[in-house]
Amino acid sequence: MRAPAFWWERLGLRALLLWPIGAVYGWLTARRMARPGARPPLPMICVGNFVVGGAGKTPTAIALAEIAAKNGLAPCFLTRGYGGRLKGPVRVDPAIHGAADVGDEALLLAAVAPTIVSRRRERAFDLLKESGASLCFMDDGLQNPSIAKTMSLAVVDGAVGIGNGLSLPAGPMRAPLRRQIGHADVVLVYGSSPRAGKVIRAAARRGRPVLRASVVQTGKAIATGTRVYAFSGIGRPAKFFDQLREAGIEVAGTRSFADHHLFSNLEAKEILAEAERLDARPVTTEKDAVRLRGRSGPAAELYESVVTLGVETQFENPIAVAELLKAARARWLRDTFEQLPTA
Asked: Is the pTM of this model over 0.85?
């Protein structure tokens, strides 16, 4: 699904016409979020967001896992495997699984720590026990009540905030902010745009800490002034294109796809042809590139020639993040001990 532009603009006619449907959808989602969940065998740190689309959940989960590992904790990941055909539960093996099997995000996570794909998250408990991990990061799922979370962190893209603030399909919200903020123990804001102000104020009213972070590009460096043809199928492709321009790279052309889009051989052929016509290097994100890996035909040719850029989360205060993770682990252990039957 590609997010319509009016979601991120001031309230207009289309949003107002869809508002009644959004109000019902948001109410139903908020009601569902209030259900109790099954207790997992590990501390469960949910990395979610208030809106649909990409806010940076996956790089956030990876950065959190890296901080956990540096502080003596053994992390693992749990994800739905969106875009993949396997319902799970299954432990991801990049040697045998591709994006068509488990989705693009699962492959990125599996490069960092043991990763379990399960559409029904509560069915992953046995594999989580076998992972040898001491805590688990759930990529997405703030609105999913099936598992009790030890801590929930809501990621906000400061460039767009919560858009027009309305619920689907009138806006990008999964439920009203006032109903969701109570389920978020921590709010993480990327960037310093004033568009995140409403979320920050709501967090302050509920006594929720607000963390800050930024993203830096990783991967093969592209020299300033290089002509590129950029393509992407992520939550907000325009964000990727803007990052290239801000880095001084000449973007000769762009092509956007829906989030998690599995590129066809015809599309790969078209991308290669357009890049050649523009005398530009094809460039995409790491998340997009994994959907080309292991393919044949033009998709394989595109994978070999494309310049891949990833993103890495940098927390403003990584020490505070580490303390939150350790506190969540300690809280889960304390609750587990208290629930043990007495002799």
From this structure: yes
